[in-house]
Structures are given as structure tokens and as C-alpha cells.
Write a structure and sequence with these properties.
- The chain has 174 residues and is α+β, with helices and mostly antiparallel strands.
- The strands form 2 sheets. The chain has a 4-stranded antiparallel sheet, covered by helices on one side. It has a two-stranded antiparallel sheet with strand order 5-6.
- A hairpin with a 2-residue loop joins strand 5 and strand 6.
- Helix 2 packs across helix 3.
- It is elongated.
Length: 174
């Protein structure tokens, strides 16, 4: 299909603003509304115009945040946040601009679960605020690295081997 000067001008105008009406284009180019309509329909039919789209202002952030639970032998280093949650399992924060980006991660890693972030709220931390852990047997405040014990898919923390042994004895279910 051969494009003339008016076809090219119509394409230029529509590429700048795809919401222009036939009448508006006609006024700009000095053509009748019906002539503009016929030309645009011909350009669409011939595949010159494939679709109409919008351009989103860069001020609007269209990125989406997801947490991905992935399996990997090595800790991935391409994500802004990585949390090891098992032997070969990691919870990673992925910020993506397009669905294709998410598909790319799924091709590169064994993705176990995809968790979209629906809402985010920044919590307030008071200066000097700290979390205190206590021994699950004696209640003593844990100041050093605790002894961690897993029983029936629940984690328990102890201050010393004696408390762990006493806990095991008191919870022995034969």
C-alpha cells in the first residue's frame, strides 16, 4: 500500500494523540470528516495501524511488587531483598514493570509460590525499641545465640542445653 502525504500526517497526529476525533484531524489537515474516517479505516484494514494505545506519564509508577518463594542451591543476588527460609528456599522481593519480567524469573528459578503485594505500610520504629526473646522452658531472657529446637513443625528456643533436655522430658509423648 502506498501512503501519501495525508496518510503520513494522519499517522503523525494519531501517534501523538490517538484520541483525536475524525473532525479534529479534518480541521487540522483541511479535510472532510468522512475523508479522514475513510483513510483511517483503510490504514487499519491494511495493517498500517495495528492498535491504539496510551502513554503513561513517568510520574506514575506502574511497577508492581511481588514476593517469590524460590528454590535454589545458591542465594540469588539479583533481588533487592533476599530472605533464606529453608535449606534451599528463599523468599525474594521482586519489583517488576511488566508481566514478562515475572515470567523471566519463573524461567530462571524454580518458583514455588508467587505472592503479590496488595498493600504496604511502613511501621514506626521507636528509637531504642528491641525485641526480647525468652527461653521456652524457664522464661529467662535470651542474650546470646539461642538453642533452636523444632517439634511438630513448631520452633522453640532455649537458653541452655539443660532447659532443652528438661523441655524434651516434660513433653515426651512416648
Amino acid at each position: 500500500m502506498k501512503l501519501d502525504e495525508y496518510d503520513m500526517k494522519i499517522l503523525d497526529l494519531l501517534s501523538e494523540n490517538s484520541r483525536l476525533s475524525y473532525s479534529e484531524i479534518g480541521k487540522i489537515l483541511g479535510l472532510a470528516r468522512q475523508t479522514v474516517k475513510s483513510r483511517i479505516e483503510r490504514l487499519e484494514k491494511e495493517g498500517i495501524i495495528e492498535k491504539y494505545t496510551i502513554k503513561i506519564s513517568p510520574a506514575i509508577d506502574t511497577r508492581k511488587t511481588f514476593f517469590l518463594l524460590i528454590e535454589s542451591e545458591d542465594m540469588p543476588d539479583e533481588f533487592p531483598e533476599v530472605y533464606r527460609v529453608g535449606k534451599d528456599r528463599y523468599l525474594v522481593k521482586a519489583v517488576i514493570a511488566t508481566p514478562d519480567s515475572l515470567s523471566e524469573y519463573a524461567r530462571r528459578y524454580k518458583v514455588v509460590e508467587i505472592l503479590p503485594v496488595i498493600e504496604y505500610r511502613q511501621g514506626k520504629m521507636t528509637e531504642g525499641m528491641e525485641v526480647v526473646f525468652r527461653c521456652d522452658y524457664c522464661g529467662k531472657e535470651l542474650r546470646e545465640k539461642p538453642i533452636v529446637y523444632k517439634r511438630h513443625n513448631k520452633l522453640y528456643v532455649f537458653c541452655c542445653p539443660t532447659c532443652l533436655d528438661m523441655f524434651r522430658e516434660s513433653n515426651y509423648d512416648g
